[in-house]
Each structure stands twice: as C-alpha cells, then as structure tokens.
C-alpha cells in the first residue's frame, strides 16, 4: 500500500513539474512565435502588393461573416482569415490583400494571401503555410516564370478553373503536374478570394 502511495506521489510530482515546464516554455516562446507570424504575414502582403507603403486592417472585419459569403457561393473548404487595405505613401487605397485558408490541400490546410487591385487585377499569391508533397504539391510555392503561381499574376480577377489539357481561355489555369488536388485547392481558394473581393467592393463582374 505504501509503495502504491509513493508511486502515486512520484507520478503527481512528475506531472506537476512537466506541466510547469511546458507552461514556462509556452510563456517564453509565445511572443516570438506571434511576432514571427506577423512578420511572415507582412512579407506575404508586400510580395503581392509591392507598390503599397503600408497595409491597414479593414474596420469591423468579421472573418466568420466573410467566410459565410464564400461558403454560400460554394467554396465550403475555405475560410477568409483576414483582409487588409494596400495603401500608398499618400494614403490612397490601391487595393486589397485577402488571406484565405483552404482545407482542401492534399497534405492538409494551405494558407495564402492574394493581392487584388482596385481595377480587379490579381497581383499574385503568397503562401504562408503549406504541407503538400515535396516535389509535387509543394510546387504551388514556386513563383518563378512558368510556375503555377505565375498564371495568376496580372490576371483579371475572375473565377478560374483548373485544366490538365492546356489552358485555352482566360478563366483556365494549368494544373501542377501530378498535383491536381493541390492545384484545385489553390484555385478554389483564389476563387473564394475573388468572390469575397467582389462582395467587398460591390463588384459583380463574375456573378
């Protein structure tokens, strides 16, 4: 009996010490982690809106309400996480940066930001979180000439579809070879952003 009590006390002590240690590590690392996420998001914003001097949050932005809009349009795998105004040095709004998370990726959720100008032109996208297959779905992060991402640069903000037989219209994009699921996840996510952009600025070009 005494041994049982002793073992229980030892186990309790170990649990308390481990819990304290985990809590301490969390307190020490939470601020650097949060700062790193903010820095990554700002870098993504700047990469899709190079002309912007700063980015301002949308007043009263509601992620749940924004997500309801895109999910009602059929993009049920997408969440609109955030929206910011891209502003030049004089305070003029150049367009918007919309951050989306799609859970339709092959390896799980993908989070990215897309820049759309006031003239409804897409500047491109920047991925901040992705876990796709190396050498296949991860090609979605490539931004060089001829990449999947490059197909969305300087394109009119319209609803896109993925094709594996060669894009032949303004609304089609070529899938990443052997990564159709990733291609569709990204494209649907971009379509969700375009849908929200249209609701944000009152546009109806694609409705």
Automatic annotation (TrEMBL):
Repressor as a keyword of this entry, yes or no, is: no
Q: Which residues carry this modification: FMN phosphoryl threonine?
A: 180
Pfam families the record matches: FMN_bind
Annotated GO biological processes are: electron transport chain
Q: Which InterPro entries match?
A: FMN-bd (IPR007329), Ion_transpt_RnfG/RsxG (IPR010209)
| UniProt key word DNA-binding | no
Q: What is its EC number?
A: 7.-.-.-
Q: Which cofactor does it need?
A: FMN
Query: What GO terms are given for molecular function?
Result: electron transfer activity; FMN binding
Which membrane topology describes this protein?
A: Single-pass membrane protein
Cellular location(s): Cell membrane
Coarse class of the protein's main subcellular location: membrane
Please provide one cellular component term from the Gene Ontology annotations of this protein. Answer: plasma membrane
Give all residue intervals belonging to the FMN-binding domain. 105-197
Q: Which UniProt keywords apply?
A: Cell membrane, Electron transport, Flavoprotein, FMN, Membrane, Phosphoprotein, Translocase, Transmembrane, Transmembrane helix, Transport
Per UniProt, subunit arrangement is:
The complex is composed of six subunits: RnfA, RnfB, RnfC, RnfD, RnfE and RnfG.
Matching HAMAP family: RsxG_RnfG (MF_00479)
PANTHER family given for it?
A: ION-TRANSLOCATING OXIDOREDUCTASE COMPLEX SUBUNIT G
State the function annotated in the UniProt record: Part of a membrane-bound complex that couples electron transfer with translocation of ions across the membrane.
Q: According to its UniProt record, which protein family does this protein belong to? A: Belongs to the RnfG family.
Q: What is this protein called?
A: Ion-translocating oxidoreductase complex subunit G
Organism phylogeny: Bacteria, Bacillati, Bacillota, Clostridia, Lachnospirales
């Amino acid at each position: 009996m005494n041994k049982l009590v002793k073992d229980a006390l030892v186990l309790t002590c170990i649990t308390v010490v481990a819990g304290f240690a985990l809590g301490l590590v969390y307190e020490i690392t939470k601020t650097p982690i949060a700062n790193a996420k903010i820095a990554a998001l700002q870098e993504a914003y700047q990469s899709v809106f190079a002309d912007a001097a700063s980015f301002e949050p949308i007043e009263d932005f509601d992620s749940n309400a924004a997500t309801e809009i895109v999910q009602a349009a059929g993009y049920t795998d997408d969440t609109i996480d955030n929206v910011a105004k891209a502003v030049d040095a004089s305070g003029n709004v150049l367009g918007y940066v919309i951050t989306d998370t799609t859970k339709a990726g092959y390896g799980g959720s993908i989070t990215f930001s897309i820049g759309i100008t006031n003239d409804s032109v897409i500047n491109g996208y920047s991925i901040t979180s992705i876990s796709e297959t190396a050498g296949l779905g991860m090609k979605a992060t490539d931004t060089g000439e001829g990449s999947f991402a490059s197909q969305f640069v300087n394109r009119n903000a319209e609803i896109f579809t993925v094709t594996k037989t060669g894009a032949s219209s303004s609304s089609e994009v070529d899938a990443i070879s052997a990564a159709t699921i990733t291609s569709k996840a990204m494209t649907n996510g971009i379509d969700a952003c375009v849908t929200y952009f249209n609701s944000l600025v009152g546009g109806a070009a694609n409705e």
